[in-house]
């Protein structure tokens, strides 16, 4: 009955909106001219202030016109984000490592399915932030430099791969209905926005016409033209002195007129305000808002467009431009079905049961399995799950944040690497080993917590949960938790707790591994867009040591000197009376204590699996972090933090087989500490099923097939300055020095052999396509997936890339199986860009290479062909 009532409320909300058009007809039954006329009629009924308000992301209701409020801001980078339970896929850089375009389509489809489920679930209420159908993803900026903290959100360093994957993601998000979009996809951030994070609000990216056309724009062109993305987001930065969101040359002349983009443009949040406030491109917000509107920005994520009333008074813009922007936004709502009866939509049956459903979890598992890249294997992998004693060591082995990355939903059943290995392997021990970096606390591990003081007591803490923001009365649920590390973004500790306000009490004992100084921290993920916060109280040895009411300045940590390893009574009381996003009980123990414990644990095992790397607390968007190797979300070094390097060095001295598993959103340069590792895997931030996927690969039940979407450089010393946007000496396309692992690299448990590459012709005209055919043979005794990569080397004129990826095929081959693959290169794929930024197919000598990895140009000659005739502009 409750479900029926909610659905009825949703129907009522959508039917209210039909009053905007004065009729109850499905828009897909009308001509574009009829729809435009209806929209214009609605706009004409609005006052100018009402129109201006509709151009901001929190568009208010206009009750007299029957127009509901709508919050345009939603995120879906690797799963629906920031609105409670949803499927959490690997971070975008991990999805890119699959090199699997159809998979990205399926991921996009899940994002919009779950967005629809959330949207319908809000029936009868104003749509909250992150509850709508306008998804501000994907991020298709080029990951030009591994130091960029937000590079993890992208599909890597290559324009072709980015366009291939992004196109499928957009098409998956938007659905296959010929008129109604399942959700709007919004490629971002247009354009040349790839760090640094510090100073991003005023940064000026100086980009040559060649690099803009050759590297930074192709993916945006593909997604707005071929994939027909509904929207486009302009970025914070300037491009050659003009703020992106004020650039009529780019947004109007290039995107709308030359590319033919028909959708709407939204600003990055507060980017319109930055035009005057940070760039000082305009004298005040009235001028800045007018600059953005005149340039073609339809929707302001922020409130700077409120100044458009002054812009109009000062004749800085026109009412016609205001109406044009609003028309585009209302048309988007029409195409999403928001202005029609619910019965018009082919998506009306989507319900809450779709959220992180078993089918979606299976897709997340498949994505994680395909994303993991095997970088080294001296024959130790796969492991023997039934017979080998495995020690799981490292700070990222049991951390929820490392699964979810940034811009994420809340996983209903997250599986950490430790959980996954324990479920698959017979004999598993564990030690944290180190912190991520000195001064960065980590969740207190499960082997340091006991429900009772007596030796041998069960690990973990006794938990009591209350369905109210009070600890009075009888708990609604009681259980034992292994640690306190919860993502609470619009959810409670358990689905059984139905109230938006709730409380928890955990009791037990902390068992320090050695005497020394310990800092305990209650890390509450404070919401940045709310007004109320959660509170907590921490007791140690029955003494209140921390009381925090969520006010700025309230202490969240306390240091203790423990004289020995005796257990200490601990109690944490948490009141979720606000809107904060998570809580973890963390610590900073003596480094030597963690190291010694790890060495003792590993010494008893047959094989060590060391989980090391980074986390979204170290790399990400505009982080308030300053420590060695990290600055404001970006990195200043490619090395592992020193604490983890020391851990690997100590483990290496045991002379046991060691598998190093990297978790990161960017390339990490493993130093000499890992040179003797028997195996290395890159797992990225692998999503809700990441631990299960890793365990299946370690055990050999899944054959690794991931490929690097970025270059793993040796050091930042090999790179140009971070702020230099020239592509010279960047990415595999322009970098010709030695690297640790090249773009496109990835090993398998199988062995594949390629035949001779054959071309349909060795001489062609600039207007003709080219076919390239090759056979691939699985010469091993194990079924595996091979990723065949086709690379083009254009004539090596000034500014030409050394190589460009132009084809990808993922194929599964049984033992002994051979398959013939054919790639088709269009004239556009064989085009090059000159120094003026003009793209054309040009006469000259070209070469093609195919294989399971980027070719070594010093060892491979490729297959040559020649293009003849006059240059053909593209």
In words, what does this structure look like?
- It is a single chain.
- This protein is of the alpha+beta class and 874 residues long.
- It has 4 domains: 2-347, TIM Barrel (Alpha-Beta Barrel), CATH 3.20.20; 359-443 and 586-747, 3-Layer(aba) Sandwich (Rossmann fold); 446-482 and 490-580, Jelly Rolls; 750-873, Immunoglobulin-like, CATH 2.60.40.10.
- Strands 14, 15, 16, 18, 20, 21 and 23 form a 7-stranded antiparallel sheet that branches. Strands 10-30-29-25-11-12 form a 6-stranded mixed sheet, sandwiched between helices. Strands 13, 17, 19, 22 and 24 form a 5-stranded antiparallel sheet that branches.
- Helix 5 (101-121) packs parallel to helix 6 (159-174) and helix 6 runs parallel beside helix 8 (218-225).
- It starts with a helix and ends with a strand.
- The relative contact order is 0.11.
Topology:
Layout lengths: L1 H17 L13 H13 L3 H7 L3 E2 L10 E2 L20 H5 L4 H21 L12 E2 L23 H16 L9 E2 L18 E2 L3 H8 L1 H8 L5 E4 L3 E2 L2 E2 L4 H11 L5 E4 L3 H7 L7 H11 L12 H6 L5 H17 L22 H14 L1 E5 L11 E5 L6 H5 L12 H8 L2 E5 L10 E2 L5 E2 L10 E6 L10 E5 L3 E3 L14 E9 L5 E9 L10 E6 L2 E6 L8 E6 L5 E9 L5 E7 L2 H13 L3 E7 L12 E2 L2 E2 L2 E2 L6 H11 L5 E6 L15 E4 L7 H10 L31 H4 L17 E3 L3 E2 L3 E3 L4 E9 L5 E10 L10 E10 L4 E8 L6 E2 L5 E3 L2 E8 L11 E6 L3 E2 L1
Parallel strand pairs: 3-4, 5-7, 6-9, 11-12, 11-25, 25-29, 29-30, 33-41
Antiparallel strand pairs: 1-2, 7-8, 10-30, 13-24, 14-18, 15-16, 15-18, 17-24, 18-23, 19-22, 19-24, 20-21, 20-23, 26-27, 27-28, 31-34, 32-34, 34-37, 35-36, 35-40, 38-39, 39-42, 40-41
